[in-house]
Amino acid sequence: MKFIIITGLSGAGKSEVLKVLEDQGFYCIANLPPVLLKDFVELTMSKKSDFENVALLINTKESDAIHKFFENIKDLSESDIDYEILFLDASDRVLTKRFKELRRPHPFSPDGGIVKGIELEREELKGIKSKANHIIDTSNMTLGKLKEEVTKIFLEGSKSEKLSISVVSFGFKKGIPMDIDLLFDVRFLPNPYYIDELRPLTGNDSEVREYVMGFEESRVFLEKLKGMVEYLIPYYIKEGKSQLVIGIGCTGGKHRSVTIANELNEYLLDKEYRVTVIHREQEK
Length: 284
Fold this sequence. Notes:
Elements: E1 2-8, H1 14-23, E2 27-32, H2 37-44, E3 53-58, H3 63-78, E4 84-89, H4 92-102, H5 114-124, H6 126-131, E5 134-137, H7 143-154, E6 164-171, E7 182-185, H8 206-212, H9 216-238, E8 243-250, H10 256-270, E9 275-279, H11 280-283
Parallel strand pairs: 1-3, 1-4, 2-3, 4-5, 6-8, 6-9, 7-8
Helix pairs in contact: 1-7, 4-5, 9-10
């Protein structure tokens, strides 16, 4: 039996994750008061229970609720109850945008600004985040990508460090994504745009991939990029970073950046890292 406790920042996607698990056959409960956590877990795990997999979304929208959560987690650990904590995170910029779109006040700052509420909640949840078995940063994730990530972790049993990696291809002429941690400019590579038969295609097409990777400078760059990223990942994990965003940019975000992003994504997947690839200009 899997018992998953879902928590995290307001607006980070906790409800969406609960829906994904419900669709996969989990018995799901939303917003159970933390004080009832231990009793509920003992009930579902008793021999009389016929629950197979359970997912529980804990309401931690108040400081008092967070303190009660810690007390009950301690009780669960002392009772040798097997459970996993999934923490949903996102950048301040993305969370602010989501709250503005919903036109809702932040629960930690109903009379103040959204940014202040996010700061307060992030500080209050630092302890819970440190105890999480899994951390998913949804800043650059569509609902489809989030579903894939949850499925990988809980249904396919993929390896799950506390770091998720997003490889983002983009076009410089449309602006640099704000959340990028590592930025690589591939405009020095030969451009398929100037080949008539390749212009309407993208880096997702084999013809473009073969053209871009047919040059020695592309292959050498890719090998050096792989080595650098793999060298850095353990240090990001050590520092407690939950999301690493790698930006690959070319002029229009259609050919070279998409090709290199796909190559890097495949390499990291083979290494069993938690990674998703996002082609910003293709998904618009």
